[in-house]
Amino acid sequence: MVVEADVRKAFDKLTGQASHYTIHELNQLPNETKAQLYSLLIPDKVFQLFEIDRRDFKNKDGEHVLRLVADCTCTFVIIEISEHPGDGDPIFSLEIEDTAFCKIDINFLIINDVRGPRFDTDIDQAGRRTKFATVGRNIPEEIRAMNSGLTPGQVRPGLRLFKDFVPLANAFVEAMGQDMVIVEPLGYNNAIIFESYGFGYIRGLRKMEEINEGFQPGGELFEKLDGGTPFRRPGMEKTVRGRSWAIHDGILGEPWRGIEMYRPSKGCTVGTFPGWIY
């Protein structure tokens, strides 16, 4: 089992105990070492739930199920683990990257329950990629996903392992000699969850406060929850998930963007949706 306290010890053993690293520098390590190193970011429960051996990344059928993109020329790494080779949806997928200011940026993170139902919100009804609804939408699938308790962008239920990932990521980044993690939340719900794990705002704090104000009774966004679409039903302002679907549906009058967050080693105390319910 790999827990937060073990990450630094394993990191030092695999890397040689230098005081500071970038992703680019870690990518110079031998492939087997890189696989063991970056796998420290995968919560143990992923391996336990899907019967995958953490030592060799093989499932119970003896198939190797880890995918690592960490070329020595790259300033980023992609680490994915699937239930079976070639699965369309990985269980765990993470991309992290060096920033221009020598910090660590989480570009993408998803943890899927690949045994749960799939919702084709990522492709439209003609089979074209929606790219998180930036170039198209699949409204019937979005409605089905929303009614099943998912949030925008999800194609499968999650495994509720973000709480397990954050301590591992913090320990990993500290072992690198770095002092913060940066992330751009893909949706409103992500931003609120990041807040609850000690992330603050580089950009977008006032925007998040204005969104909360707008969803208060009598506010501009509250008044737009008129039932005009399935994603704008009265009462959706009361939950993170409801607000997120309304924002996904364009209730802000502009695309979701301009939010950048960070987490220092000691964490921040920010709450733009006091007393929120997911």
Furnish the topology, listing elements before pairings.
Blueprint: H1 4-15, H2 23-26, H3 31-38, H4 44-49, E1 66-69, E2 76-81, E3 92-98, E4 104-111, H5 139-147, H6 162-175, E5 180-183, H7 188-196, E6 200-203, H8 205-214, H9 220-224, H10 240-248, E7 260-264
Parallel strand pairs: 4-5
Antiparallel strand pairs: 1-2, 2-3, 3-4, 5-7, 6-7
Give a verbal description of the structure.
The chain has 278 residues and is α+β, with helices and mostly antiparallel strands. It folds into two domains: 6-201 and 260-264, no CATH class; 202-259, no CATH class. Helices cover 31% and strands 14% of the residues. The protein has ten helices and seven strands. It has helices at 4-15, 23-26, 31-38, 44-49, 139-147, 162-175, 188-196, 205-214, 220-224, 240-248; strands spanning 66-69, 76-81, 92-98, 104-111, 180-183, 200-203, 260-264. A seven-stranded mixed beta sheet has the order 1-2-3-4-5-7-6, with helices on one face. It starts with a helix and ends in a 14-residue tail after the last strand.
